[in-house]
């Protein structure tokens, strides 16, 4: 298992948009390479992508899974975050698996995290492709001297 090193501090901007006010870090478990992800202050997230009709069952976009959803949104845009020298950036499956682990770290119930993970696996292909077309995954940058 991994762990959140910081709480998620947000400001509601409008509609379904929130801004991260302070960096939030999540350390992935060894199963996922132990990578440290830092969701940077100023990042905009829409929370968990839960359709309106599923919210009575799952909960609001801002439920107990919100920090995991914020990390998932961040990694969809910046899949190389936390990768060390010579490491490949995460692929979509890895990003989705880290979302599942982060929900487990938050103690989201088994059925809810399984359903949400399944939903991002089914529904995330288009958004992932859209991000990659706009911003291909760059190669890892060399270490600073």
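^ Assign residues to that structure.
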């Amino acid at each position: 298992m991994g762990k959140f090193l910081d709480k998620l501090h947000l400001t509601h901007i409008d509609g379904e948009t929130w801004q991260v006010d302070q960096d939030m870090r999540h350390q992935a478990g060894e199963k996922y390479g132990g990578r440290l992800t830092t969701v940077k202050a100023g990042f905009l997230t829409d929370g968990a992508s839960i359709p309106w009709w599923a919210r009575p069952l799952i909960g609001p976009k801002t439920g107990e899974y919100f920090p995991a959803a914020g990390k998932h949104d961040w990694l969809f845009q910046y899949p190389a975050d936390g990768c060390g020298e010579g490491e490949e950036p995460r692929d979509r499956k890895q990003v989705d698996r880290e979302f599942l682990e982060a929900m487990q770290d938050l103690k989201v119930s088994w059925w809810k995290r399984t359903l949400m993970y399944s939903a991002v696996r089914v529904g995330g292909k288009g958004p992932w492709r859209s991000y990659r077309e706009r911003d291909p995954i760059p190669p890892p940058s060399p270490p600073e001297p």
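The mean pLDDT is 88.
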